[in-house]
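@channel sequence for tomorrow's demo:
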Amino acid sequence: MTDLTTATVAVRGVEVPAVGYGTWQVTGRDAVEGVADALDLGYRHIDTARMYGNEAEVGRALADSPVDRDDVWLTTKVWMDDASAEGVRRSAESSLSDLRTDHVDLLLLHWPSDDVPLAETMQALDALQNDGKARHIGVSNFPSGLLAEAREHADLFAHQFEFHPYLVQPPLLEPDDLLLEAYSPFAHGRMHKESVLHDIGEAHGKSAGQVALRWLLDKPNVATIPKASSHERRLENFEVFDFELSDDDRAQIDALPKDGRILDPGFAPDWEG
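structure tokens (generated this afternoon):
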């Protein structure tokens, strides 16, 4: 069984577990049991958010686990409605209380806000990092221009965004000093049905989903946070470090149509901005 504590992405000398357990839409007992099972399997990277409504359950699973808190990379996010300086601090402190920890490893702004100056939000995140409440800070769902602007106001470590074989945003992959976190790596299940990935997987004794994850992890500075609703799928999702894709495999995946954005709510930014 792969030990995820050794399967890491190194960014600025910081080692981040390359495959995390994503908890979007996982709530209640399912969240407690899912996080507990992930930690038992070897996951050392857990991703949540204030908006998910499951931080208390994630915190309970972390507290009850024999895994030391310092061995887990824990990410949470501030919702865009709390993008003001006061809101960022209030949200973060509520998250820490629910998560039963005095710090998170990564604190992100979940989506850009049209209502609060970006400088104010970034400076509030920076203040929380200076206070030790977040070891690293970053953003999520930012187009490249807005990301560059955010970086003018704070020393960001990470950017989390939708990334899978049907959606590649080259400008977001350019920074070589940011952790790039790929969410929705299966495009809400579409990857599991993709015949190209299935055929490549058969040649390696792997599933289509595992091929999708391996393709992502071959990119520089990329970690990924797949969601999984069962023990079997959580296990499958991190058994991706014992095979390699060939150049031909990658070329076939790269040739898939790139028109598959899954998450595009009405409040989303201009993706070309």
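heads up for whoever presents: Residues 15-254 form a domain with the TIM Barrel fold (CATH 3.20.20.100).
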